[in-house]
Design a protein that fits this description.
Layout lengths: L9 E5 L14 E5 L2 E9 L4 E10 L7
Antiparallel strand pairs: 1-2, 3-4
């Protein structure tokens, strides 16, 4: 019998709010691994800015050396 793979730790990253509360974003949150981060893509409209997409990128190590 095969052993189940250990669950990889994931985290939920909430998308930033639009610049105007009347705007609605198409992205609410993104689930990524602990070694990943999210780069938000924005769209500028006459009413303000809103997150319209994302890219998952390697997480930068922020610990001092």
């Amino acid at each position: 019998m095969n052993e189940p793979e250990p669950r990889k730790r994931r985290r939920l990253v909430v998308a930033p709010a639009p610049s105007d509360p009347r705007l609605r974003s198409t992205v609410l949150n993104v689930e990524c691994a602990e070694h990943e981060d999210v780069e938000w893509q924005w769209t500028q409209t006459a009413e303000g800015r809103v997150v319209s997409g994302y890219a998952i990128v390697p997480r930068l190590d922020k610990r001092p050396r």
